[in-house]
Specification:
The structure holds 2 protein chains of 2 kinds.
Chain A: E1 8-13, E2 16-22, E3 29-31, E4 40-46, E5 54-59, E6 66-70, E7 78-79, E8 100-106, E9 115-120, E10 123-127, E11 135-136, H1 138-141, H2 146-150, E12 162-168, E13 176-181, E14 184-188, E15 196-197, E16 218-224, E17 227-235, E18 238-243, E19 249-251, E20 264-269, E21 277-281, E22 299-302, E23 310-312, E24 330-332, E25 340-343, E26 349-352, E27 360-363, E28 369-375
Antiparallel strand pairs in A: 1-2, 1-28, 2-3, 4-5, 5-6, 6-7, 8-9, 9-10, 10-11, 12-13, 13-14, 14-15, 16-17, 17-18, 18-19, 20-21, 21-22, 22-23, 24-25, 25-26, 26-27
Chain B: E1 2-4, E2 18-20, H1 26-36, H2 40-44, E3 55-59, E4 62-64, E5 76-81
Parallel strand pairs in B: 1-5
Antiparallel strand pairs in B: 1-2, 3-4, 3-5
Classes of the chains: A mainly beta, B alpha+beta.
């Protein structure tokens, strides 16, 4: 029997979620009806430990943030009984308010009911009942260094400061990383009770301090599942690799073409090869347009852990295409011939089923795309 | 007390436009509303007990952000979704 390479994409947009399913050759794609049309969906993620379960982070223009859970692959949804929220501040103090849930990460394989959520402004939350109730992780949310690390609510993206890239080490449920925009990359060895900045070697050229310990702006941090001591990050100030044993980031983006630069939001790791990475560069000059450099979209890949990079633009518009790809909006499946997928701010999903050599537009005319994740069905 | 429910919150009230909730203050009424329709309060009141940015609450015809506002028997609560952009 011929092998099939079916893929499913979970798409979070400014106006609801969608599910895009391929045929067995990843040639034909079928888009679902909108899910929670009009809701602002920042992330929709499958639980690899219980594959029929999806969690979705959403809010609306009027209503506060919440998390929705489906146990039938998106057919029906239930709202969290206790969504992520900061502690009530003592009388006379201002207290923080979750504006939106930005990031969702399933917990370690040994903890099948655990999920983590990152919020804007920066907050870390944990659920121990599969996303039904959520509690703040006090080791970060109540940390006396929090404001110093993150620079307060003024120091964030135009849509607010974010906590993202929550990573659970596949070898150890207590070992975590996460990224704060702004703040930097942080590591915990005790399941979030304490955190240490891990930013040595990473630039933060927007700060007046040379080689600061924290205050950086990681856009997306990834750990390789097959080589968990290897991390990559696409940062506000370049593309980096770190071997955790050395605890120092190396700017592999210096090897990108100078004209293109090494600024972007997402970074995607090859599931079978820790030396292969894909990025989607954007214009980070002057006022930061955050669009494809020169209006010519392209993915860049390295096959040697960042020593050299190659442009992959076959199929993308040749010019006058000014879209942006957000940090959760680029991903890959794990088939033998890896499929790579990205969603852009113009509401298009692009895909390549040959590791980036040729790109096809799979869907057009969606709302602005916040996130794209692969699910198994 | 009669509470007017705006369209974005009617998924909680099974599409009811108006519902009843008991209480002598706005806060008590909103908590009672949450008992009947779990989750509805957090969508309009944040974790610091402040009215969310694009929500307006009226007790009878008076706009208020003070959850301690007393509500007399027979009063009406309007939850309004203010303009929030595109």
């Amino acid at each position: 029997m011929a092998a099939t390479f079916r893929s499913t994409l979970l798409i979070g947009t400014r106006k609801g979620a969608f599910i895009l399913r391929s045929d067995g050759k990843r040639k034909k794609w079928k888009l679902s009806k909108p899910i929670f049309l009009g809701h602002i969906v920042h992330h929709i993620v499958q639980d690899p430990r219980a594959p029929k379960t999806l969690l979705m982070a959403c809010k609306t223009g009027h209503l506060g943030p919440t998390v929705l859970r489906s146990s039938d692959l998106g057919k029906t949804w239930q709202e969290a009984a206790k969504p992520p929220a900061f502690h009530k501040a003592p009388e006379g103090q201002k207290g923080r308010v979750v504006d939106h849930i930005f990031w969702l990460t399933p917990g370690h394989a040994s903890e099948p009911s655990v999920w983590y959520a990152g919020s804007s402004p920066q907050g870390l939350f944990r659920s121990e009942d599969a996303g039904i109730t959520w509690e703040g992780v006090a080791g970060f949310n109540e940390n006396p260094m929090l404001d110093t690390w993150t620079g307060g609510e003024k120091d964030g993206t135009p849509d607010g400061p974010k906590l993202h890239s929550i990573i659970i080490d596949p070898r150890d449920a207590k070992h975590m990383y996460m990224g704060c925009s702004s703040g930097g990359v942080f590591e915990s060895l005790d399941k979030g009770k304490s955190w240490t900045p891990v930013n040595q070697g990473c630039a933060a050229d927007f700060l007046p301090v040379k080689d600061p310990e924290f205050g950086h702006d990681p856009h997306c941090v990834r750990q390789h599942a097959l080589m968990p001591d290897r991390l990559y990050q696409q940062n506000h100030c370049g593309i980096y690799r770190m071997d955790a044993t050395e605890r120092k980031w190396i700017r592999i983006g210096n090897n990108m073409p100078t004209k293109t630069g090494d600024i972007g939001f997402p970074i995607v790791l090859h599931p079978h090869d820790p030396d292969t990475v894909w990025v989607f560069p954007m214009d980070g000059t002057e006022v930061w347009p955050r669009t494809s450099p020169d209006g010519r979209p392209a993915v860049y890949t390295t096959r040697n852990a960042g020593k050299s990079w190659h442009r992959l633009d076959k199929g993308f518009p040749k010019n006058q295409a000014w879209f942006t790809v957000f940090r959760q909006a680029m991903t890959c499946d794990d088939h033998a011939k890896v499929g790579i997928y990205l969603g852009n701010t113009a509401g298009e999903i692009w895909g390549s089923v040959n590791e980036g050599k040729i790109w096809n537009c799979l869907v057009r005319n969606l709302p602005k795309i916040h996130s794209v994740e692969v699910a198994k069905q | 007390m009669l509470v007017y429910v705006p369209p974005p919150l009617r998924s909680y009230t099974k599409n009811a436009h108006q519902v009843n909730a008991a209480g002598s203050t706005l806060d008590e009424i909103l908590w009672q509303l949450d008992q009947s329709y779990p989750g509805i309060r957090f969508r309009i009141i944040d974790e610091q007990d402040r009215v969310r940015r694009h929500i307006k609450l009226f007790v009878n015809e008076e706009l208020t952000e003070d959850l301690a506002t007393p509500v007399q028997a027979g009063g009406r609560i309007h939850i309004i979704c203010a303009l929030s952009g595109g």
